[in-house]
Amino acid sequence: NGVTRSVAAESDTPLLYILRNDLKLKGAKYGCGLGQCGACMVLLDGHNVMSCEVPLWSVAGKSVTTIEGLGTLEAQHALQRAFIGEQAAQCGYCVAGMIMSAKELLDRNPKATEAQVKEALAGNLCRCGTHNRIVSAVMRAGREMGRT
What is the pLDDT of residues 55-79, one digit of tens each? Predict the structure, then answer.
């Protein structure tokens, strides 16, 4: 999130544990622990990774972005504004991972089609059934990002 951090931990400790337990960043969630649900999604050098599967040693010298690094209440990222505007969360457990997946896509292609958005979010599971609103939010954010 733009700040160099050092932690004392075993080199094979999952990045997710470091983020949540050592750095107190609670946005990435523990879901399945197997890299299959997307709840722990973060960006590593701008690319989506499941932080539950990424060992600490592999992030040395790299940029890690979590949902906390995306924006603030005062200066929200377009995706955060769109998710609020579209009411694209019920329980909220999957939202951080969804937003991070969408961020990678929209950074590459802010004019992504609905099919491309759905494909980009395919690795993120949501049990609440808000996928339609989530897709709408990503499309809305893309339109905003495409104008800047």
Answer: 999 999 999 999 999 999 899 999 9
Separation between Cα atoms, residue 79 and residue 60, nearest integer Å:
28
**Backbone phi, psi, residue 26, to 5°:** -100, 5
**Which residues have CB under 8 Å from 110's CB, separation 6+?**
142, 143, 145, 146
Three-state SS at 117: helix
Exposed e or buried b for every residue in 40-51, given b needs 16+ CB within 10 A?
A: bbbbbeeebbbb
pLDDT in tens, 22-43: 999 999 999 999 999 999 999 9
Q: In this predicted model, what pLDDT tens digit does every residue of 1-14 receive, in sequence order?
A: 999 999 999 999 99
Residue type for 103, please? Answer: K
**In the sheet that 47-50 helps form, which strands lie side by side, from edge to edge?**
47-50, 41-44, 64-65
